[in-house]
Write a structure and sequence with these properties.
The protein has about 130 residues and is mostly helical. The chain contains 4 helices and no strands.
Length: about 130
C-alpha cells in the first residue's frame, strides 16, 4: 500500500479514536505518543515475522534438507512476542484511560482492522494462495 494511503488510514484511525475515547487534551497527547511508539515497535516486530515467513516459504519452494523446526519455532516466538507487546501496550494505558475507554479501544482496534481488511478484499479481489 502506498505511503499516502497509509497516512490517510492512520489519520482516519486517530480521528475515530478521539471520538470514541472522548479524552481531554492532556490524555490525548499522552495516549497518541504511547500509541505511536507502540505502532513503531509493532511494525519492526511484524517485519521480522514477515521476513521469517518469506524465508520459510523460500525453503519450502527450494525443497531439500531444511531445518523447518527451527524456522517454525522462530516464527512462533516472534508472533508470541508480538502478542505480548500488544498486551503490554493495552496494560500501559491504565494510567491514561479508564476501564471503559480501554474496552472501547480493544473493540475499536479489532473492528477498524476488520473493516479495513474487508474494504481491501472487496477492492483488490481474492488473494492469491501459495502453491505447494
Amino acid at each position: 500500500m502506498e505511503k499516502r494511503a497509509l497516512k490517510r488510514i492512520d489519520q482516519l484511525e486517530k480521528v475515530k479514536l478521539l471520538e470514541i475515547l472522548d479524552m481531554n487534551e492532556e490524555s490525548s497527547v499522552k495516549f497518541f505518543v504511547r500509541r505511536k511508539e507502540f505502532k513503531q515497535r509493532q511494525r519492526q516486530m511484524q517485519d521480522a515475522v514477515d521476513s521469517l515467513h518469506e524465508n520459510l516459504h523460500r525453503q519450502l519452494e527450494a525443497g531439500g534438507k531444511t531445518d523447518y523446526k527451527t524456522l517454525i519455532n522462530e516464527i512462533i516466538q516472534k508472533e508470541d512476542d508480538l502478542m505480548k507487546s500488544r498486551m503490554e501496550y493495552i496494560r500501559s494505558q491504565e494510567d491514561i484511560l479508564n476501564d471503559e475507554q480501554i474496552a472501547k479501544l480493544i473493540i475499536f482496534e479489532r473492528e477498524f482492522r476488520k473493516e479495513l481488511q474487508d474494504l481491501l478484499f472487496k477492492r483488490g479481489g481474492k488473494r492469491a494462495r501459495p502453491d505447494f
